[in-house]
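Can anyone check this?
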Amino acid sequence: MKDLISLHDLTAEEVQNLLKLGLKLKSELKAGIPHPILKGKTLGMIFTKSSTRTRVSFEVGMTQLGGYPLFLSSNDIQLGRGETIHDTAKVLERYLDGIMIRTYAHSDVIELAEEANIPVINALTDLLHPCQVLADLMTTYEHKGKLEGLKFAYIGDGNNMAHSIMYGCAKAGLDCAIATPADYQCDAEVVENAKADFKAAGRNLILTEDPVEAIKNADVVYTDTWVSMGMEAEKAERQKIFMPYQVNKELFSKAADDAVFMHCLPAYRGFEVTEDVIDGPQSVIFDEAENRLHAQKAVMATLMG
């Protein structure tokens, strides 16, 4: 495990080890036990796509691990002015111990990892969001006491979250159901990879256009914004198409009685989810957001420690 680009690249054991380490680091932090695993090391954080949770959790996490986080926006480095990824990687590897990147094109992250001789962490691309799903799995374990055999339902756009949820569920031993509108389904190559992962794990993957079918008896119910960054021009059209996929009280009632609700945030109340669900007693969105810190610390400690 040199990099974290996709959960599909990891073994089930590697995913389990990351989750165990995340829970351990969280426990130590709550107990006031320091863990300067990355003392003296520096993480470069490249952002061409802005974020609240990603920047804060990585900066705080690297600091808690004893290292130094260096924020690099596309306006601050020559990559944003046309320098090649190859040249950027070869320079940064001379200064840094690891690179985290949050960007648009997934191919850029793959190229960066291929060119850099230091660990590269995918903090989000238009195709995948592996760090978020590690936090989601960690939160699921905390609230359910297990992962193996649970049903995870995702309702909404077949986007980077849906892709990484499929990969993460297969590696962690959960069944998964994805409900998307016909013209907004998941990437075909990702689906084929995920099907192979689920077959190897002996678990089930359901791909459907029916949100009721997907959510039936689910232990975890998940949704995401219908309008991701860069899709603002499609906002009105998407809201009309996706309204039947809104996670509201009626739809949520089809899940298991003790189901928990998750959302990677930011959320747009009244659109992909109603207030009575996202602010209800079964919502664990803020536990989930907190666990971005602990899961990402596990990733950094594993790759850079």
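Reply from J.R.: I decoded it. The mean pLDDT is 96.
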